[in-house]
């Protein structure tokens, strides 16, 4: 998620916020301020409804962060490296570098999130009841009880309900929801086969996603669904969530196949050893004529008498005005060695592919004991997968 910005870190885990989060933040705030809270408290002034709604949205995403942080901390205790959590339009995700090493670790990680949300939900509801004190409930007008609540109990009541719903939704046994990961862990433990367990859990996730899509379209056509309600806006949103979950289930399974295919494959097996290099003192004009225009290679190692000095490519050349190409040397525009991301021949190809994607690079020099050994390119890794691995890259 390249549109995310770093908010800070907790226990060494980076917290990132995606700009898409603004969509759901505005939606929650508006729905509460213009619909839910005025219905519960017709006597509230508009500013109070909006202020409470804003606070509720902030606390809701704090709850989502706690949910994801529980995954990350339990995962870390189980030896799974998690560097960041990203909050986005559909909630949040703790980004794992690799799958858990065993089914027990997967199970503990997966169940931690829903248990955290359920604990928060029950805690908020209990605190709301404690602060509200004795509330008289009229059987003929139960909504009267809501109108007796103050601002804080109302806020806590909504937070409690939404956290319980969040916990129950995440426990649906469809991958990649937490319930799907619980299902995968149990299947993994029974079968001893991670791929088979992931395929079954992913299929369950797709089935649940299509159920949401069907329910969403039914609501668009005027149907009212028990527990979900009706209306075109809710139907469209439900179908959109289903579409997202279906894609996530497919991508999660493909990622596992990718990991299995590249695990323990060294960079030395995939890297290019035949490639052109550029001279550091060559003019940009000569570099363009000799290399960029005559080769499909995207970036070129810059090699001088002392060895590798940097990398240069088309983007570096384009930073210089065309009229100056004859007087500007390659050394002046290249990315120097000290700033280059590099790999070694023994590096794991999966880790290098992840680094290429994270840094938005297409290639990386392979260095061993200070010597340039080759270039590892993203397309070479993908070509190897297409030829030797059972991975659908489409």
How would you describe this structure in keywords?
394 residues, alpha+beta, four-stranded mixed sheet, 56% helix, 14% strand
| Overall pLDDT | 84
Helix content: 55-70%
Q: Cα-atom Rg, whole angstroms?
A: 27 Å
**Biggest beta sheet attributes:** 4 strands, mixed
* Principal-axis shape: elongated
- Low-confidence segments, given as residue ranges, are none
Tally of helical segments: 13
The sequence of SSEs as H and E is EEHHEEHHHHHHHEEHHEHEEH
Strand order of the largest sheet: 1-2-3-4
Distance between the termini: 20 Å
Concise description?
This protein is an alpha+beta fold. Helix content is 56%, strand content 14%.
Structure in words:
With 394 residues, the chain is an alpha+beta fold. 56% of the residues lie in helices and 14% in strands. It is built from 13 helices and 9 strands. Strand 5 (299-304) and strand 6 (307-313) form a beta hairpin. The model has no long low-confidence stretch (mean pLDDT 84).
Write the layout of secondary structure elements.
Elements lengths: L3 E7 L2 E6 L2 H20 L5 H32 L4 E7 L2 E6 L6 H30 L10 H5 L3 H20 L7 H14 L2 H27 L11 H31 L21 H9 L6 E6 L2 E7 H5 L11 H4 L1 E2 L12 H11 L3 E6 L2 E7 H11 L6
Helix pairs in contact: 1-2, 2-3, 2-5, 3-5, 3-6, 6-7, 7-8
